[in-house]
Amino acid sequence: MEKITKGRRMSEDFLDDEKLLQATEVQSLGNFIKRFTINPKHKRKNSMESGMYISKEAVDKRNKKLAPKVPESKEKCKLVLPDGTEVELSILEGTLGPKMIDVRDLYAKTGMFTFDPGYTASGSCVSAITYIDGGKGQLLYRGYKIEDLAANCTFIESCFLLLYGELPTAAELSDFEERVKDEMLVHEKLKDFFKGFNPKAHPMAIMCSVIGALSSFYHEDLDIEDPKQRERVAIQLIAKFPTLAAFSFRTSMGLPMVYPRRDLSYIENFLHMMFSDPMDTEAVIEPVMTEALDKILLLHADHEQNASTSTVRIAGSSKANPFACISAGIASLWGPAHGGANQACIEMLQEIGETENIPKYIEKAKDKNDPFRIMGFGHRVYKNFDPRATVMAKMCKKVVETMDTRNQEMLSIALELEKIALEDEYFIKRKLYPNVDFYSGIVLQELSIPTNMFTVIFALARTIGWVCQWKEMMSEDVLKIGRPRQLYVGETCREFVSIHDR
Ligand code: CMC
């Protein structure tokens, strides 16, 4: 086997690391197999031929650029305490977005903390990955508008962008795609896990467990302080997630598991592993399915410091195993107020059933004594429109028109519900607009993805965002464990009462 000594690949070549090679369980299974097999069709150019060599210095420079720094404060503000004392606080300014008051030394200066449940006004980190302007309805990945990326890029291209900070050249992209394919196989032992689940288990329950279980394969030899190994974790996660997600679906259906194929793209592989008919090997996947799923994944790839991403960061801040941290993110995403909204939205549209019933449900949503909410409506950050929803709405219409008319009625209900809600004073006043999940559920249903797999698809997409945010956090100079404060309103200190006297 070729040992690389002159340089390093753009996306790290782990074959150059003897220590990693010796540890079978941390070795890429795809790469391992390729050492013994030859397929001229899939022969990968070596690093020299593909122009993938960049110097170690260039890799270090890129990693340095990817590690964000807290900007220096150029402005101050004053806080006046009830006793009249004035406390000076620094103001921080990023490249985009509102300025922030730096309260890191507030306790030292005042003996007080800030109170902000749900972090509605608090920054928890510096980041250079994704930016949202909720007022303008803008979402940027590494500075590129989501609309431009959705129109011109594939999901896997956006993964490269999020991971390395720049759009790939054609050679870099094909190298990256191969690297991901090398990691798509999972250890056969992992398949045994699937036998233990309740046949009716929700696929998100399975995903929390099996992604967490990857930590049992990648722990002892994993050094999370090493940027090269962090990069490898990122590639392993985006590569293995579709395989495990498809395994969880096939288990729930009682169907045989299907392995990834080197000749298929990332999205095609996922659809192949999900829907392959063991009795019809010639069946092909509709191109519109591949396009729609690619779009859904790209639109959901990252979204700043949302609940699941913050969960991953908090879990990772204790330097926990990254596969376990991503499992924590999956758990957080599952709820209907977050990633579970796409499933909840379809269930709501089914419950509404007919356009005549819409006014009744609008009234229910407005009634404060009724817990019902219009699912797929509203967003913590977007207060004008969700740019992902605009792209998704177009894709939704295309899919419904191309595939069949099965969901035509559901789309009509959704469009009518959107129209009525957008004209209603309640929704206007609260700036409630359709979010991406208002339409993504209809698309997924049209693609024959079962409802309980919707949130798994969201998790599959968000894995790149989670792992990039984890990587970014790990690359910071000073990594602080996440540890919020509380406003205690319980009993004050009291005397213990013995069990006989209670
Ligand atoms: N239907 C009816 N009323 C709503 C809705 C809704 N979907 N969303 C918010 N409101 C009302 C809410 O009752 C409140 O009214 P009031 O001021 O009179 O008490 C006001 O609007 C503000 O709501 P909030 O819950 O304080 O806002 P938030 O920023 O904390 O919550 C949200 C954002 C997304 C959790 C919420 O809008 C919601 O529950 N939406 C439905 C679930 C959903 O679609 N989630 C997917 C979000 S996009 C995917 C993702 O990125 O995770």
From TrEMBL:
Q: Which family does it belong to?
A: Belongs to the citrate synthase family.
Q: Which SUPFAM superfamilies match?
A: Citrate synthase (SSF48256)
Record's GO cellular component terms: cytoplasm
For this entry, the protein name equals: Citrate synthase
Q: Which GO terms describe its biological process?
A: tricarboxylic acid cycle
Q: Could you tell me which pathway this protein works in?
A: Carbohydrate metabolism; tricarboxylic acid cycle; isocitrate from oxaloacetate: step 1/2
Give the matching Pfam families.
Citrate_synt
What GO molecular function annotations does the UniProt record carry, in alphabetical order?
A: acyltransferase activity, acyl groups converted into alkyl on transfer
Show which residues constitute the signal peptide: none
Task: Name the UniProt key words of this record, in alphabetical order.
Answer: Transferase, Tricarboxylic acid cycle
Which top-rank group of organisms is this from? Eukaryota
